[in-house]
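Take a specimen:
=====
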Amino acid sequence: MSLRSIISYFSNDLAIDLGTANTLIYARGRGVIVNEPSIVAINRVNNRVEAVGHQAKEMLGRTPVNIVTIKPMRNGVIAHFDLTEEMLKYFIKKAHSRKHFLAPRIVIGTPSEITQVERRAIRDTAWAARASEVYLVEQAMAAAIGAGLPVTKAGGNLIVDIGGGTTDVAVISLSGIVYGRSVRVAGHAMDEAIIQYIKRKHNLLLGERGAEQVKIEIGSAAPMDEEMTMEIKGRDLIEGVPKTMTITDTEVREALSDTIDAIVNAVRAALERTPPEISADIADKGMVVTGGGALLKNLDVRLTKETGLPVLLAKEPMSSVVLGIGKMLGDMTLLKRISSG
């Protein structure tokens, strides 16, 4: 066994999808071992971290005045450097079931249009979390690999990755991105749109978790075969007391219309800027949609109506990015070819 093989064996290489909504970590040989919300709860009095991930999400909207829950990632990039570092350290420690001989080699997925400053912040956070090497790869490329697309071949592949903070649209061929765009409209923007709509139309203040549940249960991008309704609970903004009411899928679709339009327009822009030869490939194969937002009901119907292309949902949409990065851990030649550091 060569020295390189021995080092590879003892190091616990990690693939990380550092998302706005959730952080997923994949370890070589063990698969996805961490999948938790990207949330940190801190004590205002002593600035101590009280909880991270699932435990912190349980506190969302229910904390006493001295504890605040913060999402350190915003629109796919770091909004709170120190808290992201603490969160990443916590998740990496959780990923390590035992102490390892060497610090991990870390590969992190990033949105396609982040700035050099944002890129450096993500890399610095990984170094601070005691990585031995740090590589950054674009989430759209990682999602395409995770979804099983033949990205190394000479043929166009259209991937639409709808995450928590960003929607990444990319046309990929020969291990490279022919066209890539990232719009900061995705799952969280949908939740916020639902909150604002219900506030404006019904004078009811709905919490973040409530809005997310509405999106998951009756949210849709195109009319459904049967009407769906859901009971929601919030605070009446006029009387200031708790209130329960029923909303319909039609109302939620109206609330989501601007957000869905932004995603559709990003896909159309990608198609308009794609070279004709690759357009022909995409016309045959269609597009693959992945990410948590891909689970929105009838999104495929809406995208097909707007573009005329068939739409395929990735097999594991929530995990496509981290699974793609995980595959790269076992193929350093491909990783070095497509990474940005």
